[in-house]
């Protein structure tokens, strides 16, 4: 291969590798409307204040069977954390983004499908009109995961 051709091939390969990561750096849209996917989280803006987002997130994580759930909310931000049966942390945070909106972030170290399901569950509960989580208070669920081998 000639020297000029080799440089062109290498430059093209390098450019495609560098530009291939660009959607992650800038955030790219998922199939769900208004949800942006980043390397470690999903983010969206929702028409609810953080205390309502926290209540919806807590109910969603409980319904999914996560354990060790903690939740705290204020008028400006909120955080709900739970663990899967395999010990993977799922964290939902919300921050005020406008007069009646919040920016919601769901970490997906436990996997993208789980993060998508959490956002869908939060949105479903907000549309249904869930009551806000008490301001300043938190909920702690220290119940261990159910043992599927109990009684054997």
Provide structural commentary.
The protein has helices at about 5-20, 20-25, 50-65, 110-130; strands at about 30, 35, 40-45, 65-75, 75-85, 90-95, 100-105, 140. About 35% of the residues lie in helices and about 25% in strands. It contains 4 helices and 8 strands. By secondary structure, it is an alpha+beta fold. Helix 3 (about 50-65) crosses helix 4 (about 110-130).
Strand portion: 25-35%
In total, the number of strands is 8
| Total of helices | 4
How is the largest sheet built, in terms of strand order? Answer: 1-2-3-7-6-5-4-8
Rg for CA atoms? 20 Å
Helix content: 25-40%
Features:
152 residues, alpha+beta, 36% helix, 8 strands, eight-stranded antiparallel beta sheet, globular, 27% strand
Quick recap of the structure?
The protein contains four helices and eight strands.
Layout: helices, strands, pairs:
Blueprint: H1 3-20, H2 22-26, E1 28-29, E2 36-37, E3 41-46, H3 50-63, E4 67-73, E5 77-83, E6 89-96, E7 102-107, H4 112-128, E8 138-140
Antiparallel strand pairs: 1-2, 2-3, 3-7, 4-5, 4-8, 5-6, 6-7
């Amino acid at each position: 291969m000639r020297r000029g051709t080799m440089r062109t091939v290498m430059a093209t390969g390098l450019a495609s590798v560098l530009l291939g990561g660009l959607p992650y750096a800038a955030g790219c849209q998922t199939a769900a409307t208004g949800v942006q996917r980043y390397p470690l989280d999903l983010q969206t803006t929702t028409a609810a204040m953080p205390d309502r987002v926290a209540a919806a997130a807590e109910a969603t994580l409980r319904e999914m069977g996560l354990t060790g759930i903690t939740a705290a909310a204020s008028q400006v931000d909120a955080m709900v954390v739970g663990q899967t049966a395999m010990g993977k942390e799922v964290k939902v945070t919300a921050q005020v983004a406008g007069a009646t909106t919040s920016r919601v972030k769901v970490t997906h170290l436990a996997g993208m499908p789980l993060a998508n399901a959490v956002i869908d569950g939060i949105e479903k509960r907000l549309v249904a009109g869930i009551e806000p989580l008490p301001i300043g208070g938190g909920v702690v669920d220290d119940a261990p995961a159910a043992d599927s081998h109990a009684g054997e």
